[in-house]
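Researcher: Please predict.
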Amino acid sequence: MAAGIGLIPNLGDDELLASGDPPPPRPGLATPARLWSLLFGAAARTLALAPGDKGQEESAWPEALGPRPDAPVFDWLPEDALVPWISTPGLWARFETSGRPIAATRPDIVARVHDKAFAHRVALAEGLLPAPLRDLVSIFDPGELRDADAAVARMTGALASWPEPLSRSFTLKPRFGTSGRGRVAGSAGEADTPAIRGALPRLAERGGALLEPWFARSRDLSAQLFVGDDGRITLLGTLEQIVAPSGLFLGHRGEIDSRGRVFSHGDFEESLREAAPLVAIAAAAEGYRGPCGVDAFALRLSGATDDGDPEREILRPVVELNARFTMGIVAIGLVRRALDRVRAPLGLEPGCRRAFLFALDAPSEGWEAAAASAGPGALLLPLDHAGESARPALLFAASSDRLDEAAARITGAKR
């Protein structure tokens, strides 16, 4: 195997940290994998994962980003190693004897910190959850879920302890999984249903589950970080996530300054930047090293504040830790790749910020309509490739408000 960067595009393999059974086929990962490869140097090659896969000798570089740099976009990306999207037991079994270093943390450590229960316990220990949310999440270990009667009885007790009207809509979600896969919805405070009982064996195989209310989110947010070999934490940036109602990831939006620093916009920026590194520090203490992301969201909860104002948002700053590469890191990397191309056209000078939107596909009306809705001076950078049906792109605008309609078009296209 030749030296250099060998990218292992095992996107979506989160479930393999808890179960050895391969996840079902997930179409649509070729575009995210290619965009991930653009963060690396020109010599990076994508490896084939399954019989029939051709791999990728050269990543298809978008013309809109200008000439491809030889160097990776982040100085912490390796120059000679195998680099997986996520470190799983099967990956190590396949590549550990290849004679090349694997630039990833061993999967047993990844499994400990990637577990959604880990992030929740850190949030509780660090006092990161608002008071109305502290007692609303129940953690179920796999063994508990294998005793269906006991698990249902515990869920029923938890639901009965929640304030009205939270128990009217709840979710039982796997401790390992992405984009809402494997969730089981509940309603009317009723845990003893065929759907929930039927899901318990599967959730046990997926490493357990979390029971929590189904919140109507007003904003989905994330912080992207890197844990160095010395355990030092680097905050790469914060973002707002664009997701479908099902939880499927569609894109990101944020703001960039003239130095390439990336920010989510809004009232929760500082809270997110304070909370996320604490989770990464806890993961580093467990031995985790590498890229990661912390998901968060804002919600409106009646009576959640001292004045009982139902219109005031509150932040759940820690929902889960993704102990792997993330599409947020990809988005930040691509925006930095574009910085030299957009700085002058956008008038991006010291002290200024400009807004951006990154999406994996165009809205139904097309990117041109989305760009027109972003106002004068909007700048569209297509990231698509002739061999793919998806049309990813970066859209820049003068302000975040200018991108509201474009972001709504992206979400509406997937409903």
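Model: The domain at 217-412 is CATH 3.30.470 (D-amino Acid Aminotransferase; Chain A, domain 1).
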